[in-house]
Amino acid sequence: MERMGPQSVLLLPSTPTYIRNNDVEHEYRPDSDLYYLTGFREPSSLVALVPGHAEHPFVVYLRARDPARELWDGARVGLDGARTMFGADASRDIGDIDSTLADLLLDRRRLYYALGRDRAMDDRVLAALANARRRARRGRIAPTEIVEPSTILHELRWHKDEAELAAMQRAADISAQAFERAFAVRQPGMYEYEIEAELRGCFRRLGSERPAYEPIVASGPNACTLHYVQNDRRMESGDLVLVDAGAESGGYASDVTRTFPVNGRFSPAQRRVYDAVLRAQIAAIAAVRPGSTLTEVHKVAVRSLTESMVELGLLAGSLDELIEREDYKRYYMHGTSHWLGMDVHDVGREWIDGAPRALEPGCVLTVEPGLYIRADDGAAPAEYRGIGVRIEDDVVVTSNEPYVLTAKIPKEPSALER
After folding, report:
1. Taking the model in full, what pTM does it have?
2. Would the pLDDT of 138 be above 80?
3. Which residues are catalytic?
């Protein structure tokens, strides 16, 4: 509210519920922005922040208590609970939006609201705005501009405080135990979904609300499909399996990838590819410092991987020219990092005024280089075809050395084999 300034108002609705099929809904997850501000998890709600309001600068619209519905869907916080449990200055029935929302817009010049996310809510908010403007003709004012709230809110979310980092460490620690379980049970003849089941079960057993994203368990040539989520192949001796999975805890995500041999031993060719990715990842993590950028971290990974591509016989030519022509993208086609927080691809601008944004203490990013040599790539040496490797950790920018939240999860080849 301090950053919004006086004569402004923020309206932040909850995520709508979505039908999965027929009358069954998808699992509900609260909107990250709303949860960040309030901790409130219920659907069919809207938060209003009204800086400087004498009576209610923090208003929550939500579902009223309804014993008949609560019998089916579970207890609701209710109007009283919004005030006593979440500190709202005022609480109102969500059904009253159309008749009362205009009151919150009066005497405000700027409306912070994200148009285009929920058309039904857009219509209600714009109707309230039109109502407020009609009433403004009688000597009062109404908003003359609508501003995307992410300009303030997402910049706040980009910097993580101690409590947020503790939640992220908890998510990383849960993921660490789940990966240890995956290492322990994997064996030839298992199906990818059996590893996925172990991960999901461990997440939930340790208190995670859910996976932060759909787990990837990609064995053999499936590891060369970046967002493979079918997880239904039978794993064979001699395969590598790439597991990309992370727990969500307290609303915060972890995002981890490890690649390891199904039978417990890397082949010589697999080991060479793996070592190339690990070297690149270690170098890229070392580049995570205040003042650096995601672009610079990526360049470190690209240079290391391109050098290895030449050594492995995947590419030939001058290193600088290969990088300039982006020939490396044949085997490394994605970015090295993204922000991490409440969303697995978290908010925060990557570019400011046309230049890459400098890293600052308190921001969190992934570092995840990889090499993917498709089975049908006739230009690659035969021994490397079908090998896909990615290694990913979650890294906090500090005033000194980078801090790796997921450091407990083994990635040295000897540790993975052991």
Report:
1. 0.96
2. no
3. 23, 227, 244, 255, 334, 338, 345, 368, 372, 390, 392
